[in-house]
Amino acid sequence: MLVEHSFVTTLEAQAALSQADAFLRSLGFRINSVGAERIDAERGRKKPNTRKVSRLPQTITLVYDRGRVTAAAGITPFKNREFPIHAALMTALVRSLERLLVEGQPAGEAAAEWFAVDASAGKVWTTGDKIALGILLSLVGILVSIIIVSILAAVLA
Hints:
Elements: E1 2-8, H1 13-26, E2 30-34, E3 38-43, E4 58-65, E5 68-75, H2 84-101, H3 107-110, H4 112-121, H5 127-156
Antiparallel strand pairs: 1-5, 2-3, 3-4, 4-5
Helix pairs in contact: 2-4
């Protein structure tokens, strides 16, 4: 899942990328590289082996070109199954950067939407996963019932 967004800022490259660097770090991103006109950062695990959306591999690249900032944010979904929450999280991230660099909002205000989406993301369960979990819980319930009945039969006998 990749979201690309461009916006224009009046900040110089050094100031814009410095603010973006600090902002991304505050959101838990690890900065991989910083150039004169580019930032590459990542967050989450290296492999998408978790259902928890906030721990999935997330990347963002910011490119500054004469006031135009292009942000490309991506997330690798669990089992390559994309859900609306993935797009919502990446869209909130690039919008937060726009609010920071264009509107000049403080970092906390700029990130409010991102924090809300990230907090509500939780875990992603597919229909097949839910069915398998339901069957497993049913089998456990049946097993517990059999054990209780056999214990009661032994006690009453």
